[in-house]
């Protein structure tokens, strides 16, 4: 049965916005395929230590990751991985403006943000300004991104788990 459905981005451009329009057909993922991807992502986060424990408030031990992206299947995969691996997701909304985003990164002291190509320049400018403790940017839509040597992308994390490059860690 279909669990996660989405319309893939097509090749037709919207005349009003200039953005690519989604196709009319839906692609569906099963519960099992989403579970597999969520476990792969969670295991990758564990193996790469992308969400170290933060113990800054009372006796809470939190493992935080940020996600700054529009709704997409990868967002759901990451959210499911967070549930499985006891991670706290911090949704970062660009609509809050630069000041709001800066405040969220400063308050949380998180080290990893999962994002899209559209948000990279804003995040890099925050890092250059010394905002927060961001050490890792994981790009979820790397198809249109030139990846430099040494950088990791969402797909590379998934592929590394598939090839057995990391020991599988279960939730």
Report on this structure.
Helices cover 36% and strands 22% of the residues. It has 171 residues and is of the alpha/beta class. The strands form 3 sheets. Strands 5, 6, 7, 8 and 9 form a 5-stranded mixed beta sheet that branches. A two-stranded antiparallel sheet has the order 1-4. Helix 2 links the parallel strand 6 and strand 7. It is flat, with a radius of gyration of 17 Å. 25% of the residues are buried. The model has no long low-confidence stretch (mean pLDDT 80).
**How is the biggest beta sheet arranged?**
5 strands, mixed
- The poorly predicted ranges are none
Overall 3D shape: flat
The whole-number mean of residue pLDDT values reads 80
Helix content: 25-40%
Q: Number of helical segments?
A: 5
Rg from alpha-carbon coordinates: 17 Å
Strand content: 15-25%
**Order of helices and strands, N to C?**
EEEEHEEHEHEHEH
Distance between the ends: 24 Å
SS content category: alpha/beta
- The count of strands amounts to 9
Pick out its properties.
171 residues, alpha/beta, two-stranded antiparallel ribbon
Give the helices and strands, then pairings.
Layout: E1 2-6, E2 9-13, E3 20-22, E4 27-30, H1 31-47, E5 53-54, E6 62-68, H2 73-84, E7 88-91, H3 97-108, E8 112-115, H4 117-128, E9 136-139, H5 154-162
Parallel strand pairs: 6-7, 6-8, 8-9
Antiparallel strand pairs: 1-4, 2-3, 5-6
């Amino acid at each position: 049965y279909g669990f996660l459905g989405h319309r893939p981005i097509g090749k037709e451009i919207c005349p009003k916005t200039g953005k690519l329009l989604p196709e009319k057909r839906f692609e569906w993922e099963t519960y099992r395929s989403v579970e597999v991807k969520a476990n792969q992502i969670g295991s990758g986060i564990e193996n790469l230590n992308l969400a170290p424990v933060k113990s800054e408030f009372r006796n809470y031990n939190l493992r935080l990751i940020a996600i700054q992206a529009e709704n997409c299947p990868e967002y759901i995969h990451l959210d499911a991985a967070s549930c499985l691996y006891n991670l706290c997701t911090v949704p970062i909304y660009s609509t809050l403006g630069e000041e709001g985003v800066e405040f969220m990164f400063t308050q949380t002291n998180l080290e990893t943000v999962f994002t899209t190509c559209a948000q990279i320049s804003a995040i890099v400018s925050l890092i250059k300004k010394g905002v927060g403790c961001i050490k890792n940017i994981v790009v979820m839509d790397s198809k249109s991104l030139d990846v430099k040597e040494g950088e990791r992308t969402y797909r590379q994390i998934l592929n590394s788990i598939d090839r057995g490059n990391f020991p599988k860690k279960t939730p």
